[in-house]
Amino acid sequence: MSDPSPAHLRTRSDGGRAAEYPPAPEPLPVAVYDNHTHLEIADGALPLDVHEHLERAASVGIAGAVQVGTDVATSRWSAEVAALEPRLLAAVALHPNEAPELEASGTLDEALAVIDELAARPRVRAIGETGLDFFRTGEDGRGAQFRSFEAHIDIAKRHGLALQIHDRDAHDDVVATLRRVGAPERTVFHCFSGGEELARLAADEGWYLSFAGNVTFKNAENLREALRVAPRDRILVETDAPYLTPVPLRGRPNAPYLVPHTVRFMAEVLGVDLAEFCEQLAANTVAVYGSWQDEPVTGAKA
């Protein structure tokens, strides 16, 4: 297998930012993981390749990341790079906004079959990001989103994988779908966007809440309220890089090495010891995805 890690499959849909990546933050006292990132997307004046991303991350106490696919091409890439890079695991799926287009072209079932095949690979540990997005998709495309979401839930359960949910303006329908068809044992609300009510509901169901850099935004008190009521053993952290760069770095490209900014902010909101909080985050992440060392890579670069 050729090494896919230096390449980028795409740039940001808005063309990317001209700004440079920020300087590295102070390292965390205990290593944690970025459980949702998109390293296939080039951003910034000088885009980083996968190796550069992970070297910077390791230098500040980020032990690894989950590289997430959003269509067939990025899911294949994610599975391939995780097979080569010991600091990465993969998640594979069709983003909910892909489903209506695939349905219209008659290729949704074919694309889902590819996700099912990729799900069997040993370093693929999650199905995601999948879910519902009513912000970008109107009524006419929602049927395809529901069908795709339910198919992804089935794939996750059959393969014993975690589920990473994309939920935008669709809280009630996401929850209703999970309850109707049965959620996988390890279900994660990626880039959690609800408030205290959804956080309490998720806690009752045993679901995980993953907080991104937007928890630091001034207008995101609802996310901080959710964080305060979430069980500590159900909290995860992510970048969703290159998006959602945390305060005080908004406007600059995001990357896994910037996770310490978000982790420190979350610890302050909760009023907890930083090292203990890092230990909890790391344990939670491994509980969802397994160890990054469980399956050997097939040819990682030295």
Automatic annotation (TrEMBL):
Annotated keywords: Hydrolase, Metal-binding
Pfam families in alphabetical order: TatD_DNase (PF01026)
Binding site for a divalent metal cation 2: 166, 190
InterPro entries assigned to the protein according to its UniProt record, in alphabetical order: Metal_Hydrolase, TatD-like, TatD/YcfH-like
One of the record's GO molecular function terms: hydrolase activity, acting on ester bonds
Signal peptide range: none
Keyword Hydrolase: yes
GO cellular component, one term: cytosol
Residues annotated as binding a divalent metal cation 1: 36, 38, 129, 240
Matches recorded under NCBIfam families: YchF/TatD family DNA exonuclease (TIGR00010)
Listed name of the protein: TatD DNase family protein
Source organism of the structure: Agromyces cerinus subsp. cerinus
Organism ancestry: Bacteria, Bacillati, Actinomycetota, Actinomycetes, Micrococcales
